[in-house]
Amino acid sequence: MADGGSVSIALCGSGGAGVMTAANMLIDAAASAGCYALFGRSSGPQIRGGEAAAMVRLSPEPVSSVDDVTEILLAIDWLNVQRFAAELPLDTSSLIITDPAEGEVPAAMAGSGARIAQLPMKDLAKAIPGGRPNMIALGAVAALIGLDVEAIVETLGKSLKKKHADAFAASVAAVRAGAEAAAGLGPAKRLGALPANPAPRWAVTGNQAAGLGAVRGGIRFVAAYPITPATEILEWLTGALPKLGGVFVQAEDELASIAMCVGASFGGAPSLTATSGPGLALMIEALGMATASETPVVVVDVQRGGPSTGIPTKSEQSDLNIAVYGLHGDAPHLVVAPQSIGDCLLATQWAVHLAETLQAPCIVLSDQSLGQSRAVIEAPADVAFAGRRLVAETPAEGVAYKRYALTGTGVSPMAIPGTPGCQYTADGLEHTETGTPSSQAGDHAAQLDKRRRKLADHDFGDHWATLEGDGDIAVLTWGSCTGAAREAIARAAADGVNARLIAPRLLAPTRPEHMAAALSGVSKVLVVELSHQGQFHRYLRAEYDLPGEVHALHRAGPLPIRPHEIHARLLAMGT
What we know:
The protein is an alpha/beta fold. The protein is built from 18 helices and 20 strands. It has an eight-stranded mixed sheet with strand order 6-5-4-1-3-2-14-7. It has a seven-stranded mixed sheet with strand order 9-8-10-11-13-12-18, with helices on both faces. It has a five-stranded mixed sheet with strand order 15-17-16-19-20, with helices on both faces. Helix 1 runs parallel beside helix 4 (about 135-145) and helix 7 (about 205-215) packs parallel to helix 12. The protein is globular.
């Protein structure tokens, strides 16, 4: 089988089989050897304790998307693996590795035409005191793809050698046994050439990156209620915030979480909560109050399959409508969306900056495939955004403090409670410039326009969207679909079809003039998203003028949109 390029591997097994541990070890070792990597996980609705699949793509070049085909599928056991069959695409170029003690390969996999090889992982592990089948599997996969087994041993040493010497010795023996046994499995896809002296890289999940972006942006108060798939943001922040003098509160529910955050922000502390779709639905009323009172707050929504409880462990881009349009009344607010695991850092940091600068709520739309996937990437740039909350000072004697003054920018100084001469009322009622409740038409119109204008007239700079290429076909996408679109555009270019990528990071407020410039010269548009009803397509139709022919590629989660699907559509549009 040909060497070179990336390799896509899936490890699967029942709860306790250790496939996630093996996958993490694999990408850590690959990173030390100079690889880039993307590691996604799939589990059933029980979240823990059931069957699981770890999907890893390794490459000498940066990886931004899942691959089209699983080239190596190794099953420690086959318990309920058919639940993942659609997520592990196989073809005649694939290799399935199975333990003969676990019975026949399920028809859903065997019917793909993939070559099947047997590896007695359990028997090999039993021959080693303390040996485990997942370490046999790890050694076999490393040897098959051409990854130096010593890189695996070094990685094991970092986590086990000092505190668990016996476990380390057993794991090393099992890895070496698996690597030796791999010689009898036949050929498999191998990694391309790796650099001799690789530079250090980050191994990080999107949720961890979002947490780092939050504290870099200045967040010092977090209140939240755990929910899949956002909980890891909270876990990361519980350790980070106290070191920075911040506070983390686990609230009793999402209603309390957002109320605490609005209150803390009113008191002067940049505040954030993290949730998923069901939690965001509960927070909408408080976000409306934050809009009316012009209190900055950030909500990170790590989207999952919906509606209702939906599919907690799978990804979908189906919260766009509620994020953009869900607040009642005319309630201008901010919505941003990260485009990769590394971009979760930038997008969240930017969201904090925007919320604080513009005194408005900001929703960050991540999703499960970004938040819970782990990637080996170049260290993201440490961006320092200029501007912060405009804080009121004690006014001159005889001058009334106007919290909601009709300024040129729409942003008015916000007083920290206790500032002499700056008392004001902040609630959900419409108000005058001083904050006094008012039902007068003139006051209502003036404050509505103030809240709209401060967002509409703000200069969001180049961060508003990712713009690449200049073809007359435009791929319009957002969030986690951006990586697959970028890879598909590169393939199409190799086939003589030139397309450009337009991926808005800023979803609200809209940027009509900027989008028109980005679409200049475009005659055909392909809208790509992971939404059953095509929410992004409808949003674009409502908010922007799209030129020429407009095509849509959308479907519900949990199956990701893969590069070959976009590539095929581009080739058809280019003829």
